[in-house]
Amino acid sequence: MPLQRTGQDRRKPRARASSGNPTLTDVAARAGVSLATASRVLNDSARRVGQDHRERVLRAARELNYRTDLSAQAMARGTAPVLALLVSTIDDPYFSAIAEGVAASAHDHGVIVTIAITARDSARELTSVRTIRGQRPRAILVCGSRIEGNPHTGELLAELRQFTEAGGRALFLSQPVGGVGAVRPDNATGARELGAAVADRGYRRAAVVTGAASLATVAERTEGLRRGLASRGGEITVVASDTFDRAGGYRATRRLVESGRIADVDVLCAGNDFMAVGAMTALRDGGIDPGRDIAVTGFNDIATAADVTPQLTTVHFPLAEIGRRAADLALDATAPHTGDICVPGQVLLRASCPPAAGTRPPGGAAGRRP
């Protein structure tokens, strides 16, 4: 007669050698437990598992070098240990600094970060959010200026609302829209303070080299500069727009040089530090010495702002801390849904904007030299 297996034997999987990547079945077999028990341990199920079984499963997972299948975990729990970050580009240090802070927070919360590049294309941004939702992340952070008249805003907000209604968290790292909260730099105040500091140094006629006027960040910073300069008797005499990056800063400034309009201004204010770097190169190519023949300012205080020659006058924002703060809020289920958190900046006066001839800036009013 064939041997009959007891009920206990039938419940115990037979150990077998795994080929390729170890599976949950392999872990269960090595630990001598059911597949369901192994799943509960490795997927942090709310159902309790005895300490002995838990230790056996964890030991087997280590011995087999098992890695959790995030897709399977998302199916089982309705969410994966993933935070999705959408950024306009990765070659701009502004976004990489924010991403650094997001990644630090994600690590502390035991999740990984997946990054999508939107290239400041609203259709691509919408498609990215739709695709990311299929991965069932815990949170979605959308970084990059909002665009006035964006035809995809309604659909984007609908996607984010559906995501949050299903238990996810969503935040903008730019201007808040449609009730979705935001953590962002206080562009308007920082730009106003920069404009006032530049005017206090004796500069009265500014050229602004920046991105498209439809970008909310551009509008905030340009209007802030205008108000700051006007408070001290200065003005913006020309605005040159191009792409919101280094190449755009070069092209816009080159046009000002070639048209001769650069001769009408005494300070060039770039919409961000990346544009300022391109602008200073264009000035040199046109025989104009930045910091001597014309003052130059940027915005954000990216890491290289203090390394270029001359060192760049700018508005410092704790970009990594902004990223960390947003991720902390998004990943903490007990944190209240945020509204609009504006993080203040600080004007840093450096060699690219020295006091104009015959001008002595008021003590303490114009910021500090790092």
UniProtKB/TrEMBL annotation:
One of the Pfam families matching this protein, by short name: Peripla_BP_1
SMART domains: HTH_LACI (SM00354)
Superkingdom field: Bacteria
Gene Ontology molecular-function annotations: DNA binding
Keywords annotated in UniProt: DNA-binding, Transcription, Transcription regulation
Residue ranges of domain HTH lacI-type in the record: 22-77
Species whose genome carries this gene: Streptomyces chisholmiae
SUPFAM superfamilies: lambda repressor-like DNA-binding domains, Periplasmic binding protein-like I
PROSITE patterns the UniProt entry points to: HTH_LACI_1 (PS00356), HTH_LACI_2 (PS50932)
Region annotated Disordered, chain positions: 1-23
Protein name from the UniProt record: LacI family DNA-binding transcriptional regulator
